[in-house]
Structures are given as C-alpha cells and as structure tokens.
Amino acid sequence: MPLVNPLDSSHSPETAELAKFFNETLGFCPNSVLTMQHRPAISKAFINLNKAVMANEGRVTSALKRMIAWVSSNATGCRYCQAHAIRAAERYGAEQEQLDNIWEYRTHPAFSEAERAALDFSLQASQVPNGVDAEIKARLYEHWNEGEIVEMLGVISLFGYLNRWNDSMGTSIEEGAVESGDQYLGKHGWEKGKHDGSRY
Hints:
By secondary structure, the protein is an all-alpha fold. It folds into two domains: 9-54; 60-191, AhpD-like. Helices cover 62% and strands 0% of the residues. It is globular, with a radius of gyration of 16 Å.
C-alpha cells in the first residue's frame, strides 16, 4: 500500500473535471492525482500547472516534452514517473525508434542534435548538485529560443515535484503504465519497485 491511499475519482468534482486532461495524456487519471485530492487545492493547482507546462507554445513538441520528463525521472530514479513519461511520449507521437532507444539518446541516430541538447539539459538539471553549466547553455542556444528553454525547464521542474511525490508516497502504479514500462524500459531493468502497491 502507498503511504497515503488515493481517494476515489469522484471525491472532488472539480478535480475530476480537471483530471479529464489525463485521459488524453495517459488514458487514465493517475493515482498520484487521486492521492493529492486529500487536499483538493493541491490536486487542482497541480493539474493546472501540468496543463500550462505541457501546452505547446513553440517548437518543443508534446513528444519531446515527455521524453524530457523521462530523462529527468530516470536521473532521479522514480520508476512510476519513468513509466508514465514513456507512455505519454508514445501517446503523443514519439517515433518508435526513439521510444525503443531512449536510453541511447546521446548516440542513436533517431535523435537530432536539438533533441540531444534538450535531453542533456534535462539530465543535468535533474541531478543534485545541479549540472547545468555554460556548455549546456551554449548547446541549448544553438537550437532553441529562450521561451522554448523555459518550456523545457517547466517540464523538468514539474517532474522534480512528481518524482519526489511518487517516490516518497510509494504511489501504486496503474496497469497501463506498467504495460508501457515493460514494453519500452523493461529490457534495461525497469520494474515497478516500490510502486507495486505493497511497500508499506
């Protein structure tokens, strides 16, 4: 069981209405949001932030944003968020070659130099201590404008919150996310870990 049990999706009508967003991104409302609604102001604020961060204002595609989220979650070790991010990347049109080779983004030909710069930014920004430096900045500015860099860091920061929430909570992972985790990440050792529903 997780640290705190998720509430039924009907607990907060406002949260339920906002959470329809996740039916598009994941195909289900995540247990993390159902747990946040113990304090509905948090669940509502989180969903609105998620929608704002994932909105497309420039050339950072929905698929790339989810791959940025995966790299960030992989850096911090949150298996729940790794599976969610790769599932959402698939649902938002990431190329099959990219999904199959996300672990090798630095060298695999399916990734462009612009994508590599974005994903390296995610990796360095997600580490403690933070690894963003002048080299990362220079590489970003070769391919992206300031607004697009802000969008990327919005994703990285959003998943910083989610990684801490879900790993501390031991959030039970949903079956759809398990399927995506097994399909794309299992060959590299991904498993449910503490998110199998029996941690506490």
